[in-house]
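Title: Comparing notes on inverse folding

I've been comparing how different people in this forum approach sequence design from structure. To keep things fair, I'm posting one structure and asking everyone to reply with a full sequence. Here's the target:
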């Protein structure tokens, strides 16, 4: 396995893209940062059901995005679904934190393709500066959507399944999120914390980068 720290630059559908060890994708030509599955407000939902989740998760996720925007000089944020975990409930404070975060980025264009968690009542109750697309957004040559699949307009970039793989090196085992690129569709790892993972089984010809504590690890050659 070829280990790469920090970022990995790839070409997909003729476009240069940068994968980051913080589970984001940078599209330099568009000055865009792409992320999937933030699940903002999840701590509030779990708290109402008596499930303890560390506080400050929403703020920490937004702070990570801010660092990525600054580091990679991005002026556009593209969220590939599940921006929220559930619609805001009365008394929730996290929507105010989203608005305060938007105040910190006055020139940012924030576009969200609605995911399955977003469709149940949102964007009602969230800041009007968020630009929502109900299903897909076509930003040539890519089709941006929440769920993986095929589209006649071009390669899909998606999220939804929170892809991960199990790695074994001798006695050490690791279960880690991945970027998963196939000929017709790319799937980004979940960006939010406490989002869970789904084991995927890439095949020969796929390109896969594991996100580890040491950075990005290119698994593509291991697939043949």
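Reply #1:
Here's my take.
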């Amino acid at each position: 396995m070829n280990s790469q720290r920090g970022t990995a630059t790839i070409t997909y559908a003729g476009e240069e893209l940068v994968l980051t060890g913080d589970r984001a994708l940078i599209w330099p030509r568009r000055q865009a940062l792409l992320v999937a599955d933030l699940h903002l407000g999840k701590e509030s939902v779990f708290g109402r059901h008596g499930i303890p989740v560390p506080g400050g998760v929403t703020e920490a996720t937004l702070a990570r995005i801010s660092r990525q925007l600054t580091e990679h000089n991005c002026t556009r944020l593209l969220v590939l679904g599940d921006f929220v975990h559930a619609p805001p409930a009365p008394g929730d404070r996290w929507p105010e934190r989203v608005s305060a975060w938007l105040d910190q980025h006055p020139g940012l264009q924030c576009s969200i393709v609605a995911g399955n968690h977003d469709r149940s009542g949102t964007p009602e109750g969230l800041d009007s500066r968020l630009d929502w697309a109900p299903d897909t957004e076509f930003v040539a040559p890519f089709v941006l959507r929440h769920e993986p699949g095929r589209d006649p307009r071009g390669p899909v970039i998606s999220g939804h399944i929170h892809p991960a793989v199990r790695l074994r090196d001798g006695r050490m085992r690791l279960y880690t999120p991945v970027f998963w690129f196939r000929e017709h569709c790319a799937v980004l790892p979940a960006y939010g914390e406490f989002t869970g993972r789904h084991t995927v089984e890439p095949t020969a010809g796929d390109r896969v980068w594991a996100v580890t504590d040491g950075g990005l690890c290119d698994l593509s050659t291991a697939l043949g």
